[in-house]
Amino acid sequence: MDRRAAQVRPGSRELLRPQSLPRLIRESRLFRRGCFDIFEGLLDERGRVCMLREAVRRAAAARLSDVPASDDEEVRGGNPARCLFSAAGGELLDAFYQATWMLEFLYRASGIPVVPTGDRGTYSYYIRPGHHLAIHRDIPTCDLAVITCLCDGPRKDGAGGMMGLYPGRLFEPLSAVRADPEQGVVRLRLLPGQTMVMFGGIIPHAIQPVAEGQARIVAVLCYRIPETGADSLDHLGPCREAATRQRSALDCALRCRVAASRVLT
Questions:
Q1: What per-residue confidence (pLDDT) applies to 241?
Q2: Between the CA of residue 118 and those of 43, 55, 115, 132, 221, what are the distances in Å?
Q3: In angstroms, how far is CA 42 from the centroid of its own chain?
Q4: In this predicted model, what pLDDT tens digit does every residue of 175-223 receive, in sequence order?
Q5: Which 8-state DSSP code applies to residue 61?
Q6: Hey, how many other C-beta atoms are within 10 angstroms of the C-beta on 210?
Q7: Which residues of 11-33 are buried (b: 16+ CB within 10 A; e: fewer)?
């Protein structure tokens, strides 16, 4: 293991132990599946096109994030190396993010009750050669990340834009994972219309540099596990009663059918 693994800050080392995770997470279905899973049908093709159009419109306000080298954060958050554009979501992504049926879906998908971290999600644009996001874990307020691919192409054979995940290295310092990025890596391509749900604050992950002519646009949503009542599912009660109503309202307002009920059947 890289010597830098011994430089974990005092107090942070405890976060790299399995015992540091709440039992609710350790026993969850998503944790047992390697801390990530991929779902089809959360957006149908019409919904994907609607959201992609919004992302293209929002691109006019996108900002470039260009960090040449990762900082020395060893656990989660920090400032990983990256180069990509990002923009705040619009009306469609806001509704997708805040819908009560989404909380119900995420509970069924992960086994963990969550709430939105903020008011809106983000569009990320990997549209120039070399755009990437280095190995990291998500910030402390992003316990559960939901990533929906809106566009990935045209592309040639290769790893450009693929995700790299490390389900077997959950409790290693980030410097150790970065020092040997081939060990235990699971590379996959999130296809347009697919949604990944993952414990982004637990599993190290990265986005490979995109190739010449490739454009990858994704919608990114962050949810957190409530600090109080984290072992209670009471806050999901209204979700079960309102899921159908909220889904119908979203469909009518945005004219994009959401088929979340198909995903887990």
A1: 39
A2: 21, 19, 9, 24, 9
A3: 14
A4: 999 999 999 999 999 999 999 999 999 999 999 999 999 999 999 999 9
A5: G
A6: 26
A7: eeeebbeeeebeebbeebebbee
Q: How many domains does the chain have?
A: 1
Per-residue CA distances from 52 to 55, 171, 241, 259 (Å):
5, 36, 30, 17
Residue range(s) defining the domain that contains residue 101? 3-263
Write out the two tokens for 201. Answer: 């604050």
Quote the CA–CA distance of 44 and 52 in Å, as a whole number.
Answer: 12
Q: What is the CA radius of gyration of the chain?
A: 18
Distance of CA 208 to the CA centre of its chain: 15
Nearest to 49 by CA among 190, 253, 257, 262: 257
Q: Which amino acid is at 40?
A: E
